[in-house]
Fold this sequence. Notes:
16 helices; cell membrane; protein transport; alpha+beta; four-stranded antiparallel β-sheet; single chain; 20 strands; SecD/SecF_CS; Multidrug efflux transporter AcrB transmembrane fold; 4 domains; Protein translocase subunit SecD; elongated; Alpha-Beta Plaits; translocation; Hypothetical Protein, Haloacid Dehalogenase-like Hydrolase, Chain: A, domain 2
Amino acid sequence: xxxxxxxxxxxxxxxxxxxxxxxxxxxxxxxxxxxxxxxxxxxxxxxxxxxxxxxxxxxxxxxxxxxxxxxxxxxxxxxxxxxxxxxxxxxxxxxxxxxxxxxxxxxxxxxxxxxxxxxxxxxxxxxxxxxxxxxxxxxxxxxxxxxxxxxxxxxxxxxxxxxxxxxxxxxxxxxxxxxxxxxxxxxxxxxxxxxxxxxxxxxxxxxxxxxxxxxxxxxxxxxxxxxxxxxxxxxxxxxxxxxxxxxxxxxxxxxxxxxxxxxxxxxxxxxxxxxxxxxxxxxxxxxxxxxxxxxxxxxxxxxxxxxxxxxxxxxxxxxxxxxxxxxxxxxxxxxxxxxxxxxxxxxxxxxxxxxxxxxxxxxxxxxxxxxxxxxxxxxxxxxxxxxxxxxxxxxxxxxxxxxxxxxxxxxxxxxxxxxxxxxxxxxxxxxxxxxxxxxxxxxxxxxxxxxxxxxxxxxxxxxxxxxxxxxxxxxxxxxxxxxxxxxxxxxxxxxxxxxxxxxxxxxxxxxxxxxxxxxxxxxxxxxxxxxxxxxxxxxxxxxxxxxxxxxxxxxxxxxxxxxxxxxxxxxxxxxxxxxxxxxxxxxxxxxxxxxxxxxxxxxxxxxxxxxxxxxxx
Length: 617
């Protein structure tokens, strides 16, 4: 029988549309203005603090909805925006600098929708409000770090080849290796030149001073800078994930800059603390033969340096680095058998091999864990860039009891909060080169709300114009198209709410408007084809059947080419372009479903299988 779907097909179509609307429902409930409280440097807010917050707000006659733990944070939900800034100020004064008090917008989704994983659309920075950072990578530090690696590699390789050298040090943009005789120098140049093709080796001997210099080629310098930028982007993404920010944007800008956008974050303190921290570890041997009094007075033995513990006590470390934090792949805070805070470290295979090889030959020796961090000095250079200062602190000194492998622990940490913060930074990764924030902007929620209101108005006006036009021009079939249009918008919002990585931006709202128009195009093609079939003398049932089947190929061709364009925009675009591509691709898929299959279900139900003489089209 023409124009009849089996019951199961009708059920599937209705069920899919119903699921789309179900997952779009959380967007109707909006968000509560809220203030979140979290501890600094990884500290947790205790249950007792919640009672103090409730009591303090009650004493100040603040009408709040709730004070509770949500997603690991203390969240105060308020009834209006006017109280938000007031409560933030009150809680900051009450809790002090040990806690971070930040503005937030908390979804007001009912519990039964939460239970099925339904939540509101994630909004981008232009709609949600939040913070924008422009960060610059210190490429000079990246090159210097690469040179330090060269020094360590040259020392190890020359020892393995039994080529004795008098010293290896960095001089400007080169690494200089000194030898005691010319024969060893010639062998070293030949050996290193074969192994390191990305470096330029030059014999710089003068008189009885035999030395060679190694400089990176232009290709190697470019590769080093690119690696530093890409690795920093990856590590910053990891750190943003640790912050728990919904749908952050981390992308490259130019040769040495990174743009970070954190929607919904209004207080930048915690974000700056985690994103800008250039924390890493170095494992060094302790020079136990050094005279501590002489070292404290500035007389440090050759090949060693003076470092300090948190309490200020001096420790003399050998310059040779056993292992760096680059090899750390996992870090978890915990407690040792005496309930003291510790961090459990996991290394990659290369790091595990290095640690095992070194500790095997140094059982009984003392090894120190050196924590390194770059912090702003408050001074600027001639170009206006903030100068960074390297700060070092010996976390612990331990005696190597046995051969270590890929897993071991760091003890001697002052507090559980410091252990948590150290584990977070190491787990997220050590920045390859220091970064500094050169631009910082905060987009307020009110500005984002204006964008939402204007974008929503554009969608409503466009939709209303179509809802009026279609019944006037296509009569009852126009009403069918209107039902499909409304279903299409609901399903788009539902699908975007379900996809974890989807974020609605202002260009994304433009994509929704565009797909609404494209959905109408599909119905127009179908309805015009039905009219043509009727004009050719076919019966109403045949006109409906051939109208849908003959128009399908044309609609598919047009939508597939647009879908391919959306995929290309998503692949090569960034920021606003990518947001537009996401909604366009989803809108094309949903409009094909509602405009063709959805309307066919309604048309079959109203007109299919019946004897009719005329269609209202």
